[in-house]
Amino acid sequence: MSLYGVALMPLASKMREAIPDALQPWYCDDAGAAGEALPNARCLDFLVKFGPAYGYYPEPRKSYFICKAEDEPAARRAFESYDLEINYSRGQRYLGGFIGSAQKKEEWLGDLVGKWVSAVKTLSVVAERYPQTAYAGFTFCLQNEWQYVQRVVADTGPFFEPLEREIRLNFLPALLGIPPAEIDGGYRQLLTHSVKLGGLAIHNPVDTTHGVHSASLAATRHLTVSLVCRDTRFDLGTHRTCAAEAGQAARRSRLTDEQLFLDARGRDNPSVARRDKRNCAAGAWLSVFPNRLNGTGLSADEWRDNVRLRYNHSPLEMPAACDGCGAKMSVEHALSCKTGGLVHIRHDDVADEWRHLCGTALSPCRVEREPRIFSSVSRRVQTAACSSAHDSSTPTADALHPPAVTEERGDASCHGFWARGRTTIFDMRITDTDARSYRKKEFAKVLEQHEKEKKDKYLQNCLEMRKDFTPMIYSVDGIAGREARNAEKRLATHLASKWKREYSQMVYYVRVRMAIAVVRANSLLIRGSRDRQRPRRPLIPDGAALGDWRTWSDR
């Protein structure tokens, strides 16, 4: 289609020179003309006569002339003078937008909004069982349809009130699992924010009309001037610069308004301000399509639990008491209780995800599970001290108390990660930055503290073995520490080189995969059973004990 449009440029230039009285916009092979009826008729006649030489075959019977009712007789005479039979209308759809009278625009928008309301109702039903799919379909697809209409058609805000009502009363409650009464004006405003500023990017269609239309006008300013003013020649570079600057300005304005709202919201409530700041850093797992092949899918409980935690709602149907230790169940207790080993399962799942990504980027043979972290120097000292203790009748203090050899293990090692010929050991830790002991600290300081603890404990031993050490610290929200972010960037570099993809695309891929691996385990800790009592079975050490064995039916 694009090449076909380029091939038609000589035809468009000749028609513009032959008929200067009509404004002639083209979009690929869709030709248009604006002005009085006679110049428009001459444009269509020009295309019928000279278009076939360029492979362009216009069909007048499929064309429309949009005019007022009182101007239609004169328009008919103009087109009939060139033996052209076309359609006449008070309003018509054009390139996804609309040109015509206010009444026709209202009818056209009413039909469109009605279809979108039906689509949102369908997504509300889907959101009950598949919230991640419904959310992705809404944010990545459906709402972009009406935002395009808002960009190309002016003054459309009031027509979208039924759509906003459907979103607020049905879609959001089904998505979040809350009653509509809990979604007040402030909460709805927060959900319209981008994910990077604590929202879900579910925009209010009534409020976005003016902003997106103004941005569209600014982005097409050079194109419009080149069409209207013949002295201005269209320049593609200038047009791209104009569109980029308009998009950046609109984005800055939107982000500034959202930040001002967050500042006002948390000014008198430190806990709300702290949670909003943490939500701005978390949420990479929200901006992704659910894809089983890429491992980015979440179950209904996993997705809804983490969204509810994001906005300080208790998970639905959370147990009243912990079945492991018997304590009262809360979100803080569920994310930290070590009884039953669910915390260790979460740790192992995240480590498995990192090992899988490293093996994909480099090769599986370069990745090792649970490598040893110990000092070879201390092992030799201990061996020498033990030997001297056996050989000497009066052992020294060092022989009596040899240095301890740490046999602790990391979670993964990867050869050639940071540098060629050098192995890097990774050690994972997942912490709740909103725990009671950390509530007076910024989440970034908490992650930095855990990184320092890991490096103080293991870095020197790894360096003695000529190996690198990288602590991988994550919050339960999926926020990565500084060292983990750097490791993700390095891993993205390896993936981009191997798969021949853009570096930015691979950084996004790695961050999303790791964030999903972390947040997926939150539902396990909230809903999983910590009762690990094994069934009692008879212990038979040898054949003599068979006489005392009783079957289960005898008990």
Commentary on this structure:
53% of the residues lie in helices and 8% in strands. The N and C termini lie far apart (80 Å). It has 555 residues and is of the alpha+beta class. A hairpin with a 2-residue loop joins β5 and β6. Residues 551-555 have low confidence and may be disordered. The chain contains 20 helices and twelve strands. Strands 7-10-11-12 form a four-stranded mixed β-sheet. It folds into three domains: 2-89, no CATH class; 124-265, no CATH class; 339-390 and 400-527. It is elongated, with a radius of gyration of 33 Å.
Number of helices: 20
What does the oligomeric state look like here? single chain
- Backbone CA Rg: 33 Å
Q: Kindly, what is the distance between the CA atoms of the first and last residues, rounded to a whole number of angstroms?
A: 80 Å
Number of structurally distinct domains: 3
Q: Taking all residues together, what is the mean pLDDT?
A: 89
User: Roughly what fraction of the amino acids lie in strands?
Assistant: 5-15%
Low-confidence runs of at least 5 consecutive residues: 551-555
